[in-house]
Amino acid sequence: MTTTVLILLPLVGAVGLWLTPWASPRAAGGFALLVALGELTLWVGTAANFDFGAAGLQHDTETVWFSDLGVAYKVGLYDFSLWLVGLTAVVTAAAVAYGFWSGRPRSSVYLSLLLFLEGATIGVFSAQDLLLFYVFWEAMLIPLYVLIGVWGGAGRLGATFKFVAYTMAGSLLMLVAIIAAGLGAGTFDMAQLRES
To answer: Tell me: the pLDDT tens digits for 88-117?
Structure first.
């Protein structure tokens, strides 16, 4: 359940920033920073309760979506993915703090995209189902497109076009490979795919 909360907290914070009419950019920035620091605190608590001596998945949650296809919402943390999630939480907290401090234009949108990116990235690092991994991967790319295209530097339009073209080609190939591997093995569960 902890892993699901790590994924959902920044996503809910991003939606809150989008939907709330903020009185000032400082209020929106304060809320975003509070969410980012809350996420970092939650990760510290997760790391403190992590059993590094035990092998295998911890803090996991599984809900079967389509049993015939072997598709499930399955997330959890291994020791290496715990550190990747922690790195994401630290970098996002720093990026949100800098965005809040520097007074970015349209700061509520900018900060909500950073929080959405954090939630999707943590989903990528914790997904234990290939299709779920792909969904989080694609969700992670959406705020990156916007951040590059709107707040990028002088060559942002060219960079956005290249980013979209390259990631679209790579994502389509990855989707074909995921579907072939999952249907061939009868499951999209990463642990079962490793064993087969």
So the answer is: 999 999 999 999 888 778 889 999 999 999
State the burial class of residue 60 (Cβ atoms within 10 Å of its Cβ: 0-12, 13-18, 19+). Answer: middle
Tell me which residue of 193, 178, 196 sits closest to 132, measured CA to CA.
Answer: 178
Q: Which of 83, 76, 81, 89 is nearest to 38 (CA)?
A: 89
- Evaluate whether 175 touches 131 at the Cβ level (below 8 Å): no
Question: CA-CA distance, 196 to 104, in Å (whole number)?
Answer: 50
Q: How large is the angle between the packed helices 79-102 and 2-19, nearest 10 degrees?
A: 20
> What residues contact residue 196 under an 8 Å CB cut-off, 6+ apart?
185
Question: Across the chain, how many H-helices and E-strands are there?
Answer: 7, 2
Query: Is the distance from CB of 95 to CB of 147 less than 8 angstroms?
Result: no
**How many other C-beta atoms are found inside a 10 Å radius of the C-beta of residue 53?**
6
Query: Element (H or E) spanning 61, and its range?
Result: strand 58-66
* Rounded distance between C-alpha atoms, residue 25 and residue 31, angstroms: 10
pTM: 0.93
Helix (H) or strand (E) holding 114: helix 107-126
3-state secondary structure of 21: coil
pLDDT tens-digit series, residues 43-91:
999 999 999 999 889 999 999 887 777 788 999 999 999 999 999 999 9
